[in-house]
Amino acid sequence: MWLGSTIAGIGSQMTVVAVGLQVYQLTHSTFAVSMVGTTALVPMVLAGLYGGMLADAFDRRLVALVSACVAWAATFGIAAAAWLQIDTVWPLYLLTALNAVAATIIGTSRQAILPRLLPTDLLPAAAALNGIAIGAMVTVGPALAGVLVAGIGFGWTYTVDVLLFSAAFLGIITLPPVRPEGEVQRPGLASIRYGLGFLKRAPNVRMSFVVDIIAMTFGRPHALFPAVGALLIGGGAVTVGILTAAGAVGTLLSSLLSGRLGHVRRQGVAIGWAIAVYGLFILGFGAVLAYTTFFEPGNVTESFDGAHTTALVIASIMLAGTGAADNVSAIFRTTLLQSAVPDNMRGRLQGIFTVVVTGGPRVGDFYVGVTAALFAVWLPPVLGGILIIALIALLVRFQRTFRHYDAENPVP
């Protein structure tokens, strides 16, 4: 299942990049490109809640399988539109949103299935494998998209994704039926309200959501990368690519070296420390930007030859650190969610978690955009890093149950 989802995810990331390139080719508008993700945001949030409800009501294998069929059909539609030379953007928006909705339901179902396949002590390792998969997806997928679009065109690029996505079925079809254990509620608003009510009574799970929202709100500097490449460090698109890949490299390395994390019992404390370290690396990235602003102003160009190489290296190290720290936090947060939540509630809580993961980065982009526009490009990560460290220390200090959470006696 892991191998199939990883291969399919590489193809999906490839298509995400290719769709952006095709929309820009058709419209020459950055706003039109940004709308590809924006139009899918609300459907993805709703799909997280709805998909979680379905995973708690029906055979999770069947839910994942039907969703995979929908996602594959959407990918096939994107490829068909390219081959038929349909030069309008609305089919791309529609099919991309449909693909994102189906992928969200697949992910929600898959995460609810994992605790039924593995013993509790191996759940951190499964979360680490997920980090490896994500690292591979966001590095290999976009790189393949650039090469394939330039070399063989959009039609063949999307067709490659259609073939790669077929791997997702291998992992799902070979699973046994995975029906929820315990009381099963009929799908509907009452089921979703019951899930939200459970979250209200689950301080440890709720705290894991809150700390992630804090990290993503004040510690997501990706929207700054174009300005950093153009104005502060220089190097243009090459710098943007390096900075974007640095976080994924940190995620991948931390997953490969994560074996000892499975022995950590005080996972609440570990989450707090990991996010505090994340904030420290964000602060370090902001310090690099502040240094180039005040001590190395000007003299940068859009070409890579004009980049401040030392600043770029240090900034990349800082971002690799954020990727590693965020991944460690994600390993423990995922383990807590999967082990502390009853089986018949895992789908709905995973759906709410999907909403948090989807919405947090968008709020973070808004914070970064407003703060940089009103003040300076270097200020959002500097202020954000300080806020993350302070808020996490405060919350962990006063949330006693989270601070004393024991992985060998998981309590939601």
UniProtKB/TrEMBL annotation:
Localization terms from the record: Cell inner membrane
Record keyword Calcium present: no
Gene3D superfamilies hit by this protein: MFS general substrate transporter like domains
Record-linked InterPro entries: MFS_dom (IPR020846), MFS_trans_sf (IPR036259), TM_effector (IPR010290)
Bilayer disposition of the protein: Multi-pass membrane protein
Residues covered by the Major facilitator superfamily (MFS) profile domain: 160-412
Signal peptide start-end: none
Keyword Transferase carried by entry: no
Transmembrane residue ranges: 7-25, 31-50, 62-84, 90-107, 128-152, 158-178, 224-257, 269-294, 366-396
A family per Pfam: MFS_3
UniProt entry keywords in alphabetical sequence: Cell membrane, Membrane, Transmembrane, Transmembrane helix, Transport
CDD domains in the cross-refs: MFS_MefA_like (cd06173)
Identification of the protein by name: MFS transporter
Source organism per UniProt: Saxibacter everestensis
